[in-house]
Design a protein that fits this description.
The protein has 234 residues and is mainly α. It has two domains: 30 residues, no CATH class; 203 residues, Vanadium-containing Chloroperoxidase, domain 1 (Up-down Bundle). It has twelve helices and no strands. Helix 9 runs antiparallel to helix 10. The chain is globular. It starts with 11 loop residues before the first helix and ends with a helix.
Amino acid sequence: MKINRSLLSLPIAGLACLLLIGAPLCALADLNYLSPGKPEAATLLAPPPLIDSAEQAADLDEVRTVYHAAGSNDIVAAYAEKKFSVFNFTEAVGSFFVATNLPKTAAFFEKVQLDAETVTDLGKDYFHRPRPFMTDTNLANGKLEKSFSYPSGHSTESMVLALVLAEAVPDKHDAILAHARTMGWHRVQIARHYPTDIYAGRVLAQAIVKRFKKSDAFEKGLAEVKAEIAAAQK
């Protein structure tokens, strides 16, 4: 029997979870501020366009148009955002907004983003939509993702971060949300996603934040973040 060596580095509890109930359910067990299945992308979102439909063809045509029109600055930014955190919003919030100044904020938003990632990944695995560069290999560029396309993880996660951050820094609300929208659109500019993936991510993000607000732990964490940010601004 061939052993997956990556499993050997897991804690005993994590390995037992994978062996007994599988990775998706283990991920749900690790949620911080959400309850399993609330929200659920599979029931909340409309399905993506059918693979052989005119709607799919139009979606792919828009990817081609956006991809070929993308400026060099947007392309560089898109690649730089492969991995991101709430501190990608420093330009929108202010120079004080860095992890070294805000340890509670960093820890809180890491949990927020992990929850959003879990919900989104379950949606991707449910809808199984191939990415644009898989459908049109002429769009392939850079290091390519192996995961599915719908909904966009970058769009969902960045908008979740933005919606929560905007509550903590309300005077920067518009700039924060605009930055999240740009981050999502960058993914179309490098042909990682369809426009409909991006729009679905924004819808899912709103649902996730709405559910966050039902969590006492989330509200407590957000209050601590607001206090920490207010102190750092002085």
